[in-house]
Amino acid sequence: MDTRSYTDFSIASAIYITKYTGIWLPRNVSEEWQRKISISYMAFALVFGLYLNVVDIFHIWGNATQTMFVILNTLCISMTIIKMLILNFNRAKLADAFSYAQRHFWHDNYNYEEQLIFSISVKYCTRLIFFAFAVQPVTLAGYVITPIIENLGRNKSDRVLPFKMWLDLPLSETPYYELMFTFQVIDIFLIGVAYVCPDVFLCVFNLHVMGQFRILQHRMLNFWNVEGKEMTAFIYTDHCYAALKKCIQHHQLVIEFCVKLEQVYTMSILVHMAFLSMLMGLDCYEIFVADTNLSMRLIFIFHVIGSLIHLFIFTYTCHFMMEESTNVSRTIYSGSWSTLPMYKAGRSLRSDIRLIMIRSLKPCYLTAGGFFPVSLETFTTLLSSTFSYFTLMRESLIRTEDE
Fold it and tell me: Which DSSP string corresponds to 5-45?
């Protein structure tokens, strides 16, 4: 895969993250070795985190608050493992989508107005990457802050780690405690990177699709305006029809790219949606109902805020794709096609405009496993499901206490 053509900070960062997690398609033997190393340490981090939480569930079963906390961590890691496996399985398709965007969209062959539209997409992508890099450490900070707070005033022999190790080893003593604490923090942040990695490129792709639909609309609005020379109605119609054909080709390219994104990400989106509502329900339970200390509650507050931001950005970028793809119909209809003469080119132009409008009535969108399209409505629906899970857990706890 040739990555030497157009790039910017958001694209370079997304490539780096995917290489860092081992889901990029290597171009040579050196990159293949790099990918194997990346997959090895990422798989170890995920399996080690899953092992810690599963063993913890076995030992603390019966303590509702602690069990919910560990189940939350287990679900997060399980979701990350499944999404990483899906993306690794589809990494050739991901590389194909990237190459497709490089060939058809990521270039400098735009005029001044189109370059401005393209630069807006790039600006949104850059802000997204900066925001993702800022929010993820804040979301994971609770796991690091909690043991530090709990260790205040404790003896060195009684210190706690971010995750309890059920081993008969002197892990609370120096230097073993410091080494294990550092190792667990590194593992937490590796899992955090793997957690957001599948969605980084998707959001970047979605924002560029939005930009391409806006460029298409700009071309559809402006090819009617011909300046610089006099021309007859028939020559003007031929000019408009030739320009419309180019717009149709561009429209087809963008639609094809959306199909490629659907093939790569549809199952990953389904897994994310299926897990996320349960995760946020558990977060709300631990924040508002469970009898836990302040430091532990911070973890859930940070996690639910991070999950909400993650979900909102993800659904909002998908909503952009749907909205801009349907705007094509209104844009092409607002042109000057009704004034053109009714000869062969004029009739063909009207027929093609009608087909564009019919196609645009069906928006381009990404689905969760083909079950439903992802949009801002998905965001509100998941919030409603989260509240339902939270209410169910709360009523179950109240019923248990009454009995």
Answer: SS--HHHHHHHHHHHHHT-SPPSSHHHHHHHHHHHHHHHHH
Type of residue numbered 187: D
Strand partners, 16: none
Whose CA is closest to 348, among 254, 240, 215, 257? 240
Cβ atoms within 10 Å of 47's Cβ, excluding its own: 12
Q: Are residues 181 and 161 in contact, defined by beta-carbon separation less than 8 angstroms?
A: yes
Nearest Cα residue to 124 out of 214, 21, 189: 214
- DSSP letter assigned to residue 231: -
In sequence order, what are the residues at sequence separation of 6 or more whose Cβ sits closer than 8 angstroms to the Cβ of residue 183?
Answer: none
pLDDT band, residue 2 (cuts 50/70/90): very low
Per residue in 211-222, is it b (16+ CB within 10 Å) or e — as a string?
bbbbbbbbbbee
pTM value is 0.85
Q: Give the mean pLDDT of 356-373.
A: 88
pLDDT at position 378 is 86
User: Distance between CA 50 and CA 211 in Å, rounded?
Assistant: 40
Cis status of the peptide bond prior to 175, with omega within 30 of 0: yes
Indicate if the pLDDT at residue 394 is higher than 80.
no
CA distances from 289 to 84, 125, 212, 277, 350 (A): 33, 38, 47, 17, 62
For the packed helices 176-222 and 233-288, what is the interaxial angle rounded to 10 degrees?
150
